[in-house]
Amino acid sequence: MTTLTEDTPPAAPAARLNHVSPSRKIKDRAVQGLVYLSFLLALIPLVSVLWTVVGHGIGRLDAQFFQFSMNGVSGKDPGGGAYHAIIGTLEQVAITTVIAVPIAVLTAIYLVEYAGNGRLGKVVSFFVDVMTGIPSIVAGLFVLALWLLTFGFEFSGLAGALALTILMIPTVVRATEEMLKLVPNELREASYALGVPRWRTVTRVVLPTALTGIVTGIMLAVARVMGETAPLLLTIFFTKAINTDPFTGPQGSLPTFIWDQIADPNANAHDRAWTGALVLIAIIMLLNLAARLIARRYRPAAAR
Amino acid sequence: MAKRIEVSGLHAYYGGVHAIEDISMTVEPRSVTAFIGPSGCGKSTFLRTLNRMHEVIPGARVEGKVMLDEEDLYGPSVDPVAVRRTVGMVFQRPNPFPTMSIYDNVAAGLKLNGVRGKARLDEIVEESLQGANLWNEVKDRLGKPGAGLSGGQQQRLCIARAIAVRPQVLLMDEPCSALDPISTLAIEDLIGKLKNQFTIVIVTHNMQQAARVSDKTAFFNIAGTGAPGRLIEIDDTSKIFTNPEQKATEDYITGRFG
Amino acid sequence: MTSETGVQAQARAAERRPMRDLGTGRFGDKLFEWAARGSGLLVLGIMAAIAIFLIWKAIPALRANEANFFTAETWDPNATPPKFGIAQLAFGTVMSSLIAMLIATPVAIGIALFISFYSSRKVASGLGYVVDLLAAVPSIVYGLWGVSVLVPHMEGISKAINAVLGWIPLFGGDGVGKASIFTAGVVLAIMILPIISSISREVFLQVPRANVEAALALGATRWETIRLAVLPYGRSGMIGAAMLGLGRAMGETIAVALVLTFVPGINIHILQDGGATFASNIANSFSEASETGRGALIASGLVLFVITLLINMAARAVVARRKEFV
Predict the structure, then answer these.
(1) Are the CB atoms for C16 and C24 separated by under 8 Å?
(2) Of A114, A124, A131, Cβ closest to residue C33
(3) Cys-Cys crosslink for B21: which of A121, B159, B210, B228, Cβ 3.0 to 4.6 Å?
(4) What is the CATH number of the domain that holds A253?
């Protein structure tokens, strides 16, 4: 039997505490360089996007932009605004939230509190994942095929909201699920031990505990669907005029406003497109920031 | 292949927490030194300062001197990577690389250190597995994943991996605490054999184990919760277990602790 | 909601009396459980409905189609007789998304490594937030930026690639443009960076500390530790992340529609102007589409849906497989 004896030649060059072979050190440094570089590389588009949006968008960021629609304003005209589009976006996103949140939160409750290890739970969970990957344009096509072509409804803010709902549900389900899972089981058991029925335990104990996390998730989801353009093109169509009724007729929205204005070759239209982008990004970033602040401020004990 | 360790005035911190305070001791080459003491007394932390593994935890730092023969581990020109290659370590839970075969696990450190050539690698892998008393059990399945072995075998695989790079010192952090009694016995036999070639330091919770395997024993303790761990005394194992200098040591040994 | 029978109402009343605060007991339990389960079923229903209605509304247009739907390169569904095929769209979609994935994956993994292993813990969460900001920018804004900032810059880059790699047919051809499939791929790469990097980060978080320490204790440098303990463990997760990014890129509409200039026919030289994807074609042609035209767009959307569905399912399966190692 061989043993590791003195006279076995050393496996590696005799070790000195200050010596690591230069090639290993170079490789380590090179990878470190690449890793830093990749992060800087990602910063370039972010900074460039924000820079250009602010730079081009600030010019038309005036009161008129928020007070007027594009009614009677053609591409080459100065002036005009996105009032109709902002109204449309706010209404559509509000309807989306009202429809999507209950479905998504209940689905998450089902997955965490009721499904256990059952087959249905696994299937639902899997398809929620798959749903996350649905291209937004396909959601638009679906609403087009169902709501407009089959049921015969007209283009409307509601149709747009239905398409956005499909995109919002999976995000909120996942966020809610994560938060519900963080609620310690002891809390549920303590409630059961008091004789509180299950649904009351969920609504009175579990949901309030997870509430801030769920609200954060919803705000992030709202921010996400707010920037969606593709499904709206197929469902709310276009209008230059103010339409405050989301249930009848084509409606404006900020993303489609930008899409419309950039397609116009005139410089004045492009200025409006950039300002539209600036307003859209500002709303989305504010929602993101608010969500993060809430999450940080009211972080539940279970989440460290 | 074995070196003497001389520690003087060593302090270790986790962020703002003072974990161990002012430790000085000498560990003789080709001997087994056991660290014992209650949980949280800093013995594992101290062990990790001996191969600069302590500082891989974010916010952790060390003050003081650890001389390995003539060189200070914390000297300005010293590279921690070279230190860890010179001072090997075996962990509490066996941690073979889950995606690698038994062979590749043992060869991992060698390949890092530039050992090339199949014949050379084969030879050292076999030697190391022999040295870890594992060769006979795995020689027919060297290509299988290391994670498929039993806990005791995995731990011996980790020992083989550690000794394959021929370290000067082998640190063992409660190497048997996750193992059954038979696997524990196998590891203890192995320690007895390895001390002919390596300087071994072992942290253990099990006082019988310390008594069985070590030549010297060091007892660590804390004054109270939140206080830093201190070295109470270090001496020949037989002396510590029969006639320690300090009352605290005696209390701990005889189970009157706390 | 079901109406209550008298018996149930009595039972409720009886239950309510001793414990007023706890209320409706079993009935509430049943109702609530069914509402929760119903929502779960609704999600499945929506997925099924998407497939069913897209197929249903695509069939008339497909019947009227006089060209081969899968191999024809023309998209002329508003003509009489309608002629349309998805060959060019499929080519543009797959090509631009593959380019995006190939560019984005290494950078995204680099970012994930940077945040997980190269930056201090305090900085890490801030950096993660910066990457999330990249995901928060809407696609219309990327499109706007792409057209006015990136496209002009791409001419030089494309020329350089053409000069060096022109012998490869893909990068060949005379007179490269800037509104090309390649440019679309670059915009898409930026857009899918965050999802690939955030999933990779999640995977890296799950690498057992013990494996990392084992590598360090063997005297591995930081890169060697990553190579020994992190990358092998996270491999399937990273592959899954890249695939999810690919699926995202394929479905991305607006940015691509703004960047690409439509030129009919498949052009293998991806540095030249032109090309179209499933999604960009739908966005660009919808407002002028006839009834058959809409049906044709729905049919192409159905193909996109099936492709992304398959990629997503495969990606999820790959990501889930990493649970093999514990």
Answers:
(1) yes
(2) A114
(3) B228
(4) 1.10.3720.10
Contact partners of B by the rule of 3+ C-beta pairs under 8 A?
A: A, C
In-domain check, residue B118: no
B176 occurs within a structural domain? yes
Please answer yes or no on whether A229 and C298 come within 8 Å at the CB atom: no
d(CA B98, CA C229): 9
- B window 191-250, beta carbon within 8 A of C: none
Which residue range(s) make up the domain with A82?
A: 63-303
Q: Is residue A14 part of a domain?
A: no
Suggest the residue from A17, A18, A21 to mutate for an interface test with chain B (most B CBs closer than 10 A).
A17
Ordered DSSP codes for C245-308: HHHHHHH--HHHHHHPPP-SS--S-TTSB----HHHHHHHHGGG--HHHHHHHHHHHHHHHHHH
Closest by CA to A167, choosing from C206, B80, C262, C248, is: C248
**C171, A290 in Cβ contact below 8 A?**
no
The average pLDDT across C79-84 equals: 90
Note whether B78 contacts A18, CB cutoff 8 Å.
yes
Question: What residue spans define the domains of chain C?
Answer: 6-64, 85-324
Token duo for residue B173:
């952090």
- Is C85-324 a CATH 3.30.470.20 domain? no
pLDDT digits (tens, 9 = 90+) for C149-198: 999 999 889 989 998 988 888 888 887 888 899 999 999 999 999 999 99
CA distance B248 to A67: 81
Rounded Cα distance, C64 and B102, in Å: 63
- What is the C-alpha to C-alpha distance for residues A246 and A294, in angstroms, rounded to an integer? 30
Compute the average pLDDT of residues B10-28: 92
Considering the domain boundaries, does residue A13 fall inside one?
A: no
Q: pLDDT under 50 in chain A at which residues?
A: 1-14, 301-304
Q: Check whether C292 has a pLDDT greater than 80.
A: yes
Those residues with Cβ within 8 angstroms of residue A90's Cβ, 6 or more apart along the chain or in another chain: none
For residue A222, what are the contacts with CB-CB under 8 A and spacing of at least 6? A93, A96, A97, A168, A287
pLDDT band of residue B138 (cuts 50, 70, 90) is very high
Does residue B218 fall inside a structural domain? yes
pLDDT given at position A12:
43
Q: Is C143 in contact with C188 (CB distance < 8 Å)?
A: no
Neighbors of chain C with 3 or more C-beta pairs under 8 Å: A, B
Looking at the structure of chain B, the number of domains it has is 1
Helices A267-297 and A83-109 cross at an angle (nearest 10°) of: 30
Domain extent for B235: 5-96+169-253
Do A26 and A102 share a structural domain? no
| A213 inside domain | yes
pTM, 2 dp: 0.88
Model confidence over B45-81: pLDDT tens digits? 999 999 999 998 888 999 999 999 888 999 888 999 9
The total of structural domains in chain A comes to 2
pLDDT digits (tens, 9 = 90+) for A240-262: 999 999 999 999 999 999 999 99
A55 with A72, same domain: the answer is no
Tell me the three-class secondary structure of C25-58, residue by residue.
Answer: HHHHHHHHHHHHHHHHHHHHHHHHHHHHHHHHHH
Contact residues, A window 252-271, toward C, CB-based 8 Å cutoff:
255, 258-259, 262, 270
- The answer for A 77-116 residues in CB contact with C (under 8 A) is 102-104, 106-107, 109-111, 113-115
B177–chain C Cβ distance below 8 A for any pair? no
